[in-house]
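Work Package 4 report. The design task specified in the project plan requires that, given a folded chain encoded as structure tokens, an amino acid be chosen for each position. We show below one input record used in the internal validation round.
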């Protein structure tokens, strides 16, 4: 069974080395279905945010701080969730494969959460990840979808994925939308790929006729001389 952890974050800026992670969410995607959801609000000891980021995520820091968890508590809850839903992957050493839209951005802030929360990113998560934004760029280059860019808003609108407005630009809402977008991209690829043809048996080879060797001039003369000797003796 193909299983991914489709993630999204809401942050105080674009630099995971400097800016705060405010919320983290992920959904367990397995063969096209969402099996479980995880969502946590995070309050770092000191918030580092930009006005532009707060305009996008629409988080009120005072309300957020009152309801959010410490990075240690959030990381511990995340680790418990992953051990429950990705037991086989973690037990086998394959680890949890991440997916998302511009997933490298979210991975950077997930690493920040792990660092602040005291858990090892490398022990839990695979180095392999799947980025729906990169898939969208390929789809556009291949002429399969008339998309100008690879933004999540444009992609969701093009494929008719509806994320209720109160949930848009929340970590969980965008993670759920990205999981649905992934299904749409898979369906698009399946339509574009022709079904494999049944293997045809090779035609039976006809046996070549045994070549008739021609007798050379020397052999013909020797045979004629032998016939003449037999006739004289008889």
């Amino acid at each position: 069974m193909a299983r991914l952890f489709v993630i999204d974050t809401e942050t105080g800026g674009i630099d995971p080395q400097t800016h705060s992670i405010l919320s983290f969410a992920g959904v367990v995607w397995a063969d096209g279905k969402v099996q479980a959801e995880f969502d946590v609000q995070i309050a770092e000891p000191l918030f580092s945010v930009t006005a532009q980021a707060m305009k996008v995520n629409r988080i009120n820091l005072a309300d957020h701080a009152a309801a959010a968890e410490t990075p240690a508590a959030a990381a511990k809850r995340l680790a418990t969730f992953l051990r429950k839903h990705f037991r086989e992957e973690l037990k086998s050493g394959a680890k949890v494969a991440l997916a998302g839209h511009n997933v490298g951005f979210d991975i950077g802030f997930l690493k920040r959460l792990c660092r602040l929360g005291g858990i090892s990113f490398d022990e839990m998560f695979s180095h392999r990840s799947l980025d729906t934004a990169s898939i969208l760029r390929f789809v556009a280059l291949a002429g399969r979808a008339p998309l100008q860019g690879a933004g999540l808003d444009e992609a969701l609108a093009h494929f008719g994925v509806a994320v209720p407005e109160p949930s848009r630009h929340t970590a969980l809402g965008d993670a759920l939308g990205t999981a649905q977008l992934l299904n749409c991209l898979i369906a698009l690829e399946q339509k574009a790929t022709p079904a494999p043809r049944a293997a045809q048996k090779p035609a039976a080879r006809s046996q070549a006729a045994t070549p008739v060797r021609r007798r050379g001039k020397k052999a013909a003369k020797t045979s004629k001389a032998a016939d003449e000797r037999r006739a004289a003796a008889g």
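The beta strands are 3-11, 21-30, 33-41, 96-100, 125-131. Validation will be extended to a larger panel in the next phase.
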